[in-house]
Protein backbone atom coordinates (compact mmCIF):
# COMPACT_ATOMS: atom_id res chain seq x y z
CA UNK A 1 0.00 0.00 0.00
CA UNK A 2 1.51 3.31 -1.10
CA UNK A 3 1.30 6.36 1.21
CA UNK A 4 -1.07 4.75 3.72
CA UNK A 5 -2.88 6.73 6.38
CA UNK A 6 -3.05 4.95 9.72
CA UNK A 7 -6.26 5.72 11.60
CA UNK A 8 -7.85 4.15 14.67
CA UNK A 9 -11.10 2.33 14.07
CA UNK A 10 -13.20 4.78 16.08
CA UNK A 11 -11.98 7.73 14.02
CA UNK A 12 -12.41 5.75 10.80
CA UNK A 13 -15.98 4.98 11.80
CA UNK A 14 -16.57 8.70 12.34
CA UNK A 15 -15.14 9.51 8.90
CA UNK A 16 -17.58 7.11 7.26
CA UNK A 17 -20.58 8.41 9.21
CA UNK A 18 -19.75 12.04 8.43
CA UNK A 19 -19.24 11.25 4.74
CA UNK A 20 -22.66 9.61 4.45
CA UNK A 21 -24.51 12.19 6.54
CA UNK A 22 -23.15 14.92 4.26
CA UNK A 23 -24.83 13.06 1.40
CA UNK A 24 -28.22 12.92 3.05
CA UNK A 25 -28.20 9.53 4.78
CA UNK A 26 -29.63 9.49 8.30
CA UNK A 27 -27.15 9.17 11.14
CA UNK A 28 -28.73 5.87 12.22
CA UNK A 29 -28.31 4.33 8.79
CA UNK A 30 -24.86 5.89 8.38
CA UNK A 31 -23.69 4.23 11.57
CA UNK A 32 -24.99 0.87 10.41
CA UNK A 33 -23.11 1.22 7.13
CA UNK A 34 -19.96 2.39 8.91
CA UNK A 35 -20.06 -0.63 11.25
CA UNK A 36 -19.99 -2.90 8.21
CA UNK A 37 -17.23 -0.99 6.41
CA UNK A 38 -14.93 -1.09 9.44
CA UNK A 39 -15.61 -4.82 9.81
CA UNK A 40 -14.59 -5.30 6.17
CA UNK A 41 -11.38 -3.32 6.67
CA UNK A 42 -10.46 -5.36 9.76
CA UNK A 43 -11.27 -8.57 7.88
CA UNK A 44 -8.67 -7.66 5.27
CA UNK A 45 -11.12 -6.87 2.47
CA UNK A 46 -10.19 -3.26 1.84
CA UNK A 47 -12.18 -3.05 -1.40
CA UNK A 48 -15.34 -3.68 0.66
CA UNK A 49 -14.33 -1.18 3.33
CA UNK A 50 -14.01 2.60 3.35
CA UNK A 51 -13.17 2.86 -0.40
CA UNK A 52 -16.69 1.56 -1.05
CA UNK A 53 -18.02 4.93 0.14
CA UNK A 54 -16.98 6.55 -3.14
CA UNK A 55 -19.23 4.49 -5.47
CA UNK A 56 -21.88 4.54 -2.75
CA UNK A 57 -21.91 8.34 -2.86
CA UNK A 58 -22.47 8.23 -6.61
CA UNK A 59 -25.44 5.90 -6.16
CA UNK A 60 -26.87 8.16 -3.44
CA UNK A 61 -26.48 11.15 -5.76
CA UNK A 62 -28.42 9.38 -8.50
CA UNK A 63 -31.20 7.67 -6.56
CA UNK A 64 -31.29 9.26 -3.10
CA UNK A 65 -31.26 7.65 0.33
CA UNK A 66 -34.57 5.82 -0.02
CA UNK A 67 -37.89 5.80 1.77
CA UNK A 68 -39.51 3.80 4.57
CA UNK A 69 -38.57 0.13 4.83
CA UNK A 70 -41.70 -1.98 5.28
CA UNK A 71 -42.79 -5.59 5.56
CA UNK A 72 -45.24 -6.33 2.75
CA UNK A 73 -45.98 -9.97 3.57
CA UNK A 74 -45.50 -12.07 6.71
CA UNK A 75 -46.32 -15.53 8.05
CA UNK A 76 -45.26 -17.42 11.18
CA UNK A 77 -41.93 -18.33 9.57
CA UNK A 78 -41.44 -15.92 6.66
CA UNK A 79 -41.43 -12.26 5.68
CA UNK A 80 -40.98 -10.20 2.54
CA UNK A 81 -39.45 -6.77 3.00
CA UNK A 82 -39.57 -3.81 0.60
CA UNK A 83 -36.22 -2.10 1.09
CA UNK A 84 -37.61 1.22 -0.28
CA UNK A 85 -34.35 1.89 -2.16
CA UNK A 86 -32.46 1.99 1.15
CA UNK A 87 -28.87 0.74 1.11
CA UNK A 88 -28.45 -3.01 1.54
CA UNK A 89 -26.07 -2.67 4.47
CA UNK A 90 -29.11 -1.42 6.40
CA UNK A 91 -31.86 -3.64 4.98
CA UNK A 92 -29.77 -6.79 5.35
CA UNK A 93 -29.21 -6.23 9.08
CA UNK A 94 -32.95 -5.70 9.52
CA UNK A 95 -33.75 -8.81 7.47
CA UNK A 96 -31.37 -11.09 9.36
CA UNK A 97 -32.72 -9.91 12.71
CA UNK A 98 -36.22 -10.67 11.44
CA UNK A 99 -35.15 -14.13 10.23
CA UNK A 100 -33.60 -14.87 13.62
CA UNK A 101 -36.76 -13.78 15.45
CA UNK A 102 -38.89 -16.02 13.21
CA UNK A 103 -36.55 -18.99 13.74
CA UNK A 104 -36.59 -18.46 17.48
CA UNK A 105 -40.39 -18.62 17.44
CA UNK A 106 -41.03 -21.30 14.82
CA UNK A 107 -37.70 -23.06 14.17
CA UNK A 108 -37.22 -21.62 10.69
CA UNK A 109 -37.06 -18.06 9.41
CA UNK A 110 -37.16 -17.17 5.71
CA UNK A 111 -36.89 -13.50 4.77
CA UNK A 112 -36.66 -11.87 1.36
CA UNK A 113 -35.60 -8.29 0.68
CA UNK A 114 -35.90 -6.42 -2.58
CA UNK A 115 -35.69 -2.83 -3.79
CA UNK A 116 -32.30 -2.40 -2.11
CA UNK A 117 -28.66 -2.12 -3.25
CA UNK A 118 -25.01 -2.72 -2.17
CA UNK A 119 -24.92 -5.19 0.72
CA UNK A 120 -21.20 -5.81 1.18
CA UNK A 121 -19.72 -8.89 2.85
CA UNK A 122 -22.34 -11.56 3.34
CA UNK A 123 -20.55 -13.16 6.29
CA UNK A 124 -21.28 -9.96 8.21
CA UNK A 125 -24.95 -10.98 8.33
CA UNK A 126 -24.74 -14.74 8.86
CA UNK A 127 -22.04 -14.71 11.54
CA UNK A 128 -24.23 -13.06 14.23
CA UNK A 129 -26.97 -15.63 13.61
CA UNK A 130 -24.52 -18.50 14.18
CA UNK A 131 -23.29 -16.76 17.33
CA UNK A 132 -26.87 -17.01 18.58
CA UNK A 133 -27.03 -20.73 17.82
CA UNK A 134 -28.75 -20.65 14.41
CA UNK A 135 -27.68 -22.10 11.09
CA UNK A 136 -27.82 -19.23 8.58
CA UNK A 137 -27.87 -19.08 4.79
CA UNK A 138 -27.79 -15.87 2.78
CA UNK A 139 -27.81 -15.39 -0.99
CA UNK A 140 -27.68 -12.03 -2.78
CA UNK A 141 -27.96 -11.24 -6.46
CA UNK A 142 -27.04 -7.84 -7.82
CA UNK A 143 -26.57 -5.60 -10.86
CA UNK A 144 -25.65 -7.57 -13.98
CA UNK A 145 -21.86 -7.26 -14.25
CA UNK A 146 -20.80 -10.88 -14.81
CA UNK A 147 -20.87 -12.91 -18.01
CA UNK A 148 -22.36 -16.42 -18.07
CA UNK A 149 -19.89 -19.26 -18.57
CA UNK A 150 -18.54 -19.03 -22.13
CA UNK A 151 -20.25 -15.68 -22.75
CA UNK A 152 -19.17 -12.03 -22.94
CA UNK A 153 -22.35 -10.15 -21.99
CA UNK A 154 -23.10 -8.93 -18.46
CA UNK A 155 -26.19 -10.87 -17.41
CA UNK A 156 -25.51 -12.00 -13.84
CA UNK A 157 -24.50 -10.34 -10.61
CA UNK A 158 -21.38 -11.21 -8.67
CA UNK A 159 -23.91 -13.34 -6.77
CA UNK A 160 -22.26 -14.28 -3.47
CA UNK A 161 -23.66 -16.86 -1.08
CA UNK A 162 -22.81 -17.45 2.58
CA UNK A 163 -23.41 -20.11 5.21
CA UNK A 164 -22.77 -20.04 8.96
CA UNK A 165 -22.95 -22.89 11.47
CA UNK A 166 -22.68 -22.52 15.25
CA UNK A 167 -19.61 -24.19 16.71
CA UNK A 168 -17.97 -24.78 20.08
CA UNK A 169 -15.19 -22.22 19.79
CA UNK A 170 -16.54 -20.03 17.02
CA UNK A 171 -18.95 -20.31 14.09
CA UNK A 172 -17.96 -22.02 10.88
CA UNK A 173 -18.56 -19.28 8.29
CA UNK A 174 -18.30 -19.91 4.55
CA UNK A 175 -18.77 -16.94 2.23
CA UNK A 176 -17.84 -16.75 -1.43
CA UNK A 177 -18.72 -14.90 -4.60
CA UNK A 178 -19.47 -16.71 -7.85
CA UNK A 179 -17.44 -14.24 -9.92
CA UNK A 180 -13.68 -14.03 -10.41
CA UNK A 181 -13.71 -10.58 -8.80
CA UNK A 182 -16.24 -8.55 -6.88
CA UNK A 183 -17.44 -5.38 -8.61
CA UNK A 184 -16.09 -3.31 -5.71
CA UNK A 185 -12.69 -4.94 -6.15
CA UNK A 186 -12.61 -3.89 -9.82
CA UNK A 187 -13.44 -0.32 -8.78
CA UNK A 188 -10.78 -0.50 -6.06
CA UNK A 189 -8.13 -1.54 -8.58
CA UNK A 190 -9.16 1.46 -10.68
CA UNK A 191 -8.91 3.77 -7.66
CA UNK A 192 -5.37 2.53 -7.05
CA UNK A 193 -4.40 2.61 -10.75
CA UNK A 194 -3.55 -1.11 -10.67
CA UNK A 195 -4.29 -3.73 -13.35
CA UNK A 196 -6.66 -6.59 -12.65
CA UNK A 197 -5.40 -10.16 -12.43
CA UNK A 198 -5.39 -11.90 -15.79
CA UNK A 199 -8.34 -13.97 -17.02
CA UNK A 200 -10.84 -12.24 -14.75
CA UNK A 201 -12.65 -9.86 -17.10
CA UNK A 202 -13.39 -8.96 -20.71
CA UNK A 203 -13.80 -5.59 -22.43
CA UNK A 204 -16.95 -4.54 -24.37
CA UNK A 205 -15.67 -6.46 -27.42
CA UNK A 206 -15.34 -9.67 -25.40
CA UNK A 207 -11.54 -9.58 -25.30
CA UNK A 208 -9.64 -10.46 -22.12
CA UNK A 209 -8.54 -7.37 -20.26
CA UNK A 210 -6.70 -6.33 -17.11
CA UNK A 211 -7.87 -2.70 -17.38
CA UNK A 212 -10.44 -1.95 -14.63
CA UNK A 213 -12.24 0.67 -16.76
CA UNK A 214 -12.53 -1.73 -19.69
CA UNK A 215 -13.78 -4.46 -17.35
CA UNK A 216 -16.45 -2.17 -15.91
CA UNK A 217 -17.58 -1.37 -19.45
CA UNK A 218 -17.42 -5.03 -20.43
CA UNK A 219 -17.97 -7.93 -18.03
CA UNK A 220 -16.39 -9.73 -15.09
CA UNK A 221 -15.87 -13.44 -15.70
CA UNK A 222 -17.38 -16.18 -13.57
CA UNK A 223 -15.55 -18.30 -11.03
CA UNK A 224 -15.34 -22.08 -10.99
CA UNK A 225 -16.11 -22.90 -14.60
CA UNK A 226 -19.42 -24.59 -15.31
CA UNK A 227 -19.92 -25.53 -11.64
CA UNK A 228 -19.38 -22.01 -10.36
CA UNK A 229 -21.69 -20.76 -13.10
CA UNK A 230 -24.35 -23.16 -11.86
CA UNK A 231 -24.05 -21.81 -8.32
CA UNK A 232 -24.33 -18.27 -9.71
CA UNK A 233 -27.60 -19.21 -11.41
CA UNK A 234 -28.87 -20.67 -8.14
CA UNK A 235 -28.14 -17.37 -6.37
CA UNK A 236 -29.78 -15.43 -9.21
CA UNK A 237 -32.92 -17.57 -8.87
CA UNK A 238 -33.02 -17.20 -5.07
CA UNK A 239 -32.78 -13.44 -5.53
CA UNK A 240 -35.74 -13.60 -7.91
CA UNK A 241 -37.66 -15.44 -5.18
CA UNK A 242 -36.87 -12.48 -2.91
CA UNK A 243 -38.36 -10.13 -5.52
CA UNK A 244 -35.51 -9.06 -7.77
CA UNK A 245 -35.68 -8.42 -11.48
CA UNK A 246 -34.58 -11.46 -13.56
CA UNK A 247 -31.75 -9.42 -15.11
CA UNK A 248 -30.81 -6.47 -12.93
CA UNK A 249 -29.89 -3.22 -14.69
CA UNK A 250 -28.26 -0.19 -13.11
CA UNK A 251 -31.53 0.95 -11.54
CA UNK A 252 -32.99 -2.54 -11.09
CA UNK A 253 -34.19 -4.35 -7.98
CA UNK A 254 -31.66 -6.56 -6.19
CA UNK A 255 -32.88 -9.61 -4.25
CA UNK A 256 -31.58 -10.87 -0.90
CA UNK A 257 -32.71 -14.13 0.68
CA UNK A 258 -32.05 -15.00 4.33
CA UNK A 259 -32.74 -18.41 5.86
CA UNK A 260 -32.21 -19.24 9.52
CA UNK A 261 -32.67 -22.70 11.03
CA UNK A 262 -32.76 -23.66 14.67
CA UNK A 263 -30.70 -26.87 14.99
CA UNK A 264 -33.02 -27.93 17.82
CA UNK A 265 -35.48 -29.02 15.13
CA UNK A 266 -33.24 -32.04 14.56
CA UNK A 267 -30.81 -32.29 17.49
CA UNK A 268 -29.79 -30.38 20.64
CA UNK A 269 -27.85 -27.28 19.64
CA UNK A 270 -24.95 -28.15 21.97
CA UNK A 271 -24.61 -31.55 20.28
CA UNK A 272 -24.63 -29.88 16.87
CA UNK A 273 -21.94 -27.42 17.99
CA UNK A 274 -19.85 -30.30 19.31
CA UNK A 275 -20.13 -32.17 16.01
CA UNK A 276 -19.19 -29.07 14.02
CA UNK A 277 -16.20 -28.72 16.36
CA UNK A 278 -15.12 -32.29 15.64
CA UNK A 279 -15.47 -31.70 11.90
CA UNK A 280 -13.42 -28.53 12.14
CA UNK A 281 -10.63 -29.98 14.28
CA UNK A 282 -10.44 -33.09 12.10
CA UNK A 283 -9.83 -30.94 9.04
CA UNK A 284 -7.38 -28.60 10.74
CA UNK A 285 -5.34 -31.49 12.17
CA UNK A 286 -5.27 -33.43 8.92
CA UNK A 287 -2.09 -33.97 6.91
CA UNK A 288 -1.21 -31.39 4.25
CA UNK A 289 -0.01 -32.45 0.84
CA UNK A 290 3.74 -32.65 0.32
CA UNK A 291 5.16 -29.14 0.41
CA UNK A 292 1.85 -27.65 1.52
CA UNK A 293 0.96 -25.59 4.54
CA UNK A 294 -1.57 -26.32 7.30
CA UNK A 295 -5.03 -27.46 6.21
CA UNK A 296 -7.64 -24.85 7.09
CA UNK A 297 -11.41 -24.58 7.02
CA UNK A 298 -12.95 -21.79 4.92
CA UNK A 299 -13.20 -18.47 6.71
CA UNK A 300 -10.43 -19.20 9.22
CA UNK A 301 -8.04 -16.65 7.69
CA UNK A 302 -10.73 -13.98 7.92
CA UNK A 303 -11.41 -14.99 11.54
CA UNK A 304 -7.72 -14.52 12.32
CA UNK A 305 -7.52 -11.14 10.58
CA UNK A 306 -10.60 -9.90 12.45
CA UNK A 307 -9.17 -10.95 15.81
CA UNK A 308 -5.80 -9.37 15.02
CA UNK A 309 -7.40 -6.16 13.69
CA UNK A 310 -9.67 -5.72 16.68
CA UNK A 311 -6.76 -6.21 19.05
CA UNK A 312 -4.66 -3.74 17.01
CA UNK A 313 -7.37 -1.08 16.96
CA UNK A 314 -6.38 0.70 13.77
CA UNK A 315 -6.56 0.34 10.01
CA UNK A 316 -4.65 1.69 7.02
CA UNK A 317 -6.18 3.39 4.01
CA UNK A 318 -4.61 4.90 0.89
CA UNK A 319 -3.87 8.61 1.32
CA UNK A 320 -5.75 9.66 -1.83
CA UNK A 321 -8.88 7.75 -0.85
CA UNK A 322 -8.72 9.15 2.68
CA UNK A 323 -8.45 12.67 1.24
CA UNK A 324 -11.52 12.11 -0.91
CA UNK A 325 -13.49 10.89 2.07
CA UNK A 326 -12.58 13.79 4.31
CA UNK A 327 -12.31 16.76 1.90
CA UNK A 328 -15.16 16.29 -0.57
Please provide a brief summary of the model.
This protein is globular.
Which short descriptors sum up this protein?
alpha+beta; Mal/L-sulf/L-lact_DH-like_NADP; 11 helices; Hypothetical Oxidoreductase Yiak, Chain: A, domain 1; oxidoreductase; 328 residues; Wheat Germ Agglutinin (Isolectin 2), domain 1; Ribosomal Protein S8, Chain: A, domain 1
Estimated radius of gyration: 20 Å
Helix content: 40-55%
Strand order of the largest sheet: 2-3-4-10-5-6-7
Instruction: Give the class from helix and strand content and strand pairing.
Output: alpha+beta
Tally of helical runs = 11
CATH topology of the largest domain: Ribosomal Protein S8, Chain: A, domain 1
Number of strands: 11
For the record, what is the CATH homologous superfamily label of the largest domain? Malate/L-lactate/L-sulpholactate dehydrogenase, NADPH binding domain
Major sheet size, sense and barrel closure:
7 strands, mixed
Element pattern in H and E: EHHHEEHEHEEEHEHEHEHHEH
User: Low-confidence stretches at least 5 residues in length (pLDDT < 50)?
Assistant: none
CATH class of the largest domain: Alpha Beta
Distance between the termini: 22 Å
Strand proportion, as a percent range, falls in 15-25%
> How many structural domains?
3
Structure, described:
The model has no long low-confidence stretch (mean pLDDT 96). The radius of gyration is 20 Å and the shape is globular. A hairpin with a 3-residue loop joins strand 2 and strand 3 (78-87). The relative contact order is 0.16. It is built from 11 helices and 11 strands. Helix 1 crosses helix 2. The strands form 3 sheets. The protein has a 7-stranded mixed β-sheet, with helices on both faces. The chain folds into 3 domains: 1-65 and 298-328, Malate/L-lactate/L-sulpholactate dehydrogenase, four-helix barrel (Hypothetical Oxidoreductase Yiak, Chain: A, domain 1), CATH 1.10.1530; 69-175 and 224-285, Malate/L-lactate/L-sulpholactate dehydrogenase, NADPH binding domain (Ribosomal Protein S8, Chain: A, domain 1, 2-Layer Sandwich); 180-221, 2-Layer Sandwich (Wheat Germ Agglutinin (Isolectin 2), domain 1). With 328 residues, it is α+β, with helices and mostly antiparallel strands. Belongs to the LDH2/MDH2 oxidoreductase family. This is Ldh family oxidoreductase.
